[in-house]
Amino acid sequence: MAIVVNLDVMMAKRKIGLSDLAGKVDLTLANLSILKNNKAKAIRFSTLEAICRALHCQPGDILEYVEDEQQGTDQG
């Protein structure tokens, strides 16, 4: 996966638990856990905005682009 979600890192920096954040951003614990564990396939901008507001951070603090190892190699 090329996009890595660093939500757990920001949560640790802000010393906030999953259930507290879920309440602040109005997401179910299950959906927030999927996002936190890098299992999400998409995120709504409104959800990202709410998370950034709750954690006092920027989207780039949560989302990171990492090149796949196979992208740079010749597969032929």
Automatic annotation (TrEMBL):
Residue ranges of every copy of the HTH cro/C1-type domain listed in the record: 7-62
Q: Which domain of life is it from?
A: Bacteria
Q: Which InterPro entries is this protein grouped with?
A: Cro/C1-type_HTH, Lambda_DNA-bd_dom_sf
What the entry lists under SMART domains is as follows:
HTH_XRE
Provide the GO MF annotations for this entry.
DNA binding
Recorded hits in SUPFAM superfamilies, A to Z, give: lambda repressor-like DNA-binding domains
Q: What is this protein called?
A: XRE family transcriptional regulator
Organism of origin: Acetonema longum DSM 6540
